[in-house]
Amino acid sequence: MAVPSETPSTQPTAQILPEELDALTGLIICNRQGEFFVVDESGNPVNQSATFMGDEFLPHLNDNIYFIQQSDVWVRNKTTGQTWPLMETPDVDEQLIYGFLGEWLLIKLSSGEIQNQFQSPGPISLLKLDGSEYQLLVDDSIIGVPLLSTDGKFAIISTATELLLIDEDLAQTSPFDQQFYFGAISPDNQYIAHNGSQIGVSEMSTGDLWMEFVYQGALTVGDIPPQPFQWSPNNEWVAIETFNMQVEPPAVPNQLLVLNLTTGESQTVSNGWNPRWSPDGKILVFATNPRSPYIQLLRVSETPAVVVDTGYEGLPARWTDQNNVQVNNPQNLPVECESQ
């Protein structure tokens, strides 16, 4: 087990390269007013319908989009526009669809009780995608939120007594050495990056702790929930938002910890948040300056990685052609982009 070293923070030192500008084509940008823009092939952000772009961030499979309406799960067909309730549950209030686990939807239920920031507000249920079956998966002892693989084959759920790994057939095991409450599963389902006394990376098949990264700061501040860890599509990098509470205003505490699982190196980028990897995994885009956000990118091909201004205002959300999207994540759309 290695404890990699940390390299110094970076500052913008380079201009954007033509290939990096090309890589930004198709990037969805949103702002605090709930407006969406897509970068076209000439590099211009083009305004999009807020309703259309909002659907992009709802759990979807094949031609169907799943969402909560009137405390039930509903389905909308993208081709026909037809909308219908998947199953009416008058005795249960559904609050949120976490994503897919095999042929099931993983759903948060309302318990009517106020929980602390690391605990789910209610039990978790399973609803079959065809609406034919409904069952309780975990009671309200869950801590944090479920961690789902991008392909819907695995879920990791932490309770007060155990850490469960659940596969698409709903078989449950408890293989992990460490207890953790938040993190993310790698796109190839080989590893899970997670919280702990340090940032840990554990093997999915055995549960063994494979690597740890030393970092300074905190993953949470007050009532602000931890942001989802962001894996690069090539399974080589993880970007994590952390907070440095030692900085003095007007500096902001937001910072990014960027980990390389191949070399074991890490790098901290100050004034960075809301990271998103490009579909090819070659650049990391992120928001900076929370009071009036604009977008920078991290050129990870250089060591240490170089921060570059893109010239775009707003927050990066994802790419339109991104197949490896973390749809199985309730925070796939930046909360700051949701129209008030």
Give a brief rundown of this model.
This protein is mostly beta strands and 340 residues long. The protein has helices spanning 18-23, 50-55, and strands at 6-7, 12-14, 27-30, 36-39, 45-48, 60-61, 64-69, 72-77, 83-87, 94-101, 104-109, 124-128, 134-138, 142-148, 154-159, 163-167, 172-173, 183-185, 191-194, 199-203, 209-213, 230-231, 237-243, 254-260, 266-270, 273-277, 283-288, 294-299, 306-313, 315-319.
Explain what you see:
The protein is 4% helix and 44% strand. Residues 1-10 have low confidence and may be disordered. A 5-stranded mixed sheet has the order 1-25-24-23-22, with no helix packed on it. The relative contact order is 0.17. The protein has 340 residues and is mainly β. It has helices at residues 18-23, 50-55; strands at residues 6-7, 12-14, 27-30, 36-39, 45-48, 60-61, 64-69, 72-77, 83-87, 94-101, 104-109, 124-128, 134-138, 142-148, 154-159, 163-167, 172-173, 183-185, 191-194, 199-203, 209-213, 230-231, 237-243, 254-260, 266-270, 273-277, 283-288, 294-299, 306-313, 315-319.
Write the layout of secondary structure elements.
Layout: E1 6-7, E2 12-14, H1 18-23, E3 27-30, E4 36-39, E5 45-48, H2 50-55, E6 60-61, E7 64-69, E8 72-77, E9 83-87, E10 94-101, E11 104-109, E12 124-128, E13 134-138, E14 142-148, E15 154-159, E16 163-167, E17 172-173, E18 183-185, E19 191-194, E20 199-203, E21 209-213, E22 230-231, E23 237-243, E24 254-260, E25 266-270, E26 273-277, E27 283-288, E28 294-299, E29 306-313, E30 315-319
Parallel strand pairs: 1-25, 2-29
Antiparallel strand pairs: 3-4, 3-30, 4-5, 6-7, 7-8, 8-9, 10-11, 11-12, 12-13, 14-15, 15-16, 16-17, 18-19, 19-20, 20-21, 22-23, 23-24, 24-25, 26-27, 27-28, 28-29
